[in-house]
């Protein structure tokens, strides 16, 4: 989306142009969600901009709106897990990371993100943490594709 592109471009220029591009990017994303509040990608992009600007509350709210707009979307859940973890909300981060991994079981990086979040959560028993690490290591080591019904050899 144009808003995210403008915002990201602001990191490559200096001075007043940088601030102007960053604000134009944020404004474009805000306009996109006003025009179509059901556009999950626009909410996700707005969440990324808010996160980049150090606004965790706005970022969490935007990612949650993206998830509400498209409950099957993986990227906003992954992004939400990251900002929750950065905010010290490990248990919530783990739950979102797990949801993302469940929705795209073939993407091992999502399982890795879930394990990472689990490491910071006091709510996860040590034996469950060990078991989860062993499962992901086993699947990736022998090049398996993990699915909701188990692990299958990847072709």
Mean pLDDT across residues: 76
Q: What fraction of the residues are assigned to beta strands by DSSP?
A: 5-15%
Derived structural class? mainly alpha
Q: Which overall shape is indicated by the principal axes computed on the Cα atoms?
A: elongated
What gap, in angstroms, lies between the N and C termini?
34 Å
Number of strands: 2
Which secondary structure elements does this structure contain, and how are they paired or packed?
Layout (H helix, E strand, L loop, with lengths): L1 H8 L6 H20 L4 H13 L3 H14 L5 H12 L3 H14 L4 H12 L6 H16 L2 E4 L2 E4 L2
Antiparallel strand pairs: 1-2
Helix pairs in contact: 1-2, 1-3, 2-3, 3-4, 3-5, 4-5, 5-6, 6-7, 7-8
Can you tell me about this structure?
This protein is mainly alpha-helical and 155 residues long. The chain is built from eight helices and two strands. The chain has a two-stranded antiparallel sheet. A hairpin with a 2-residue loop joins strand 1 and strand 2 (150-153). The model has no long low-confidence stretch (mean pLDDT 76).
């Amino acid at each position: 989306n144009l808003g995210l592109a403008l915002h990201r471009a602001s990191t490559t220029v200096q001075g007043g142009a940088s601030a102007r591009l960053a604000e134009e990017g944020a404004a474009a994303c805000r306009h996109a969600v006003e025009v179509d509040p059901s556009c999950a990608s626009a909410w996700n992009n707005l969440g990324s901009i808010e996160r980049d600007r150090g606004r965790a509350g706005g970022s969490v709210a935007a990612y949650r709106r993206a998830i509400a707009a498209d409950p099957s979307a993986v990227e906003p859940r992954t992004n939400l897990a990251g900002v929750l973890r950065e905010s010290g909300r490990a248990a919530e981060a783990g739950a979102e990371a797990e949801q993302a991994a469940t929705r795209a079981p073939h993407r091992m990086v999502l399982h890795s993100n879930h394990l990472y979040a689990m490491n910071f959560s006091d709510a996860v028993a040590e034996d469950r943490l060990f078991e989860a690490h062993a499962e992901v290591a086993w699947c990736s080591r022998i090049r398996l594709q993990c699915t909701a019904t188990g692990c299958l050899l990847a072709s």
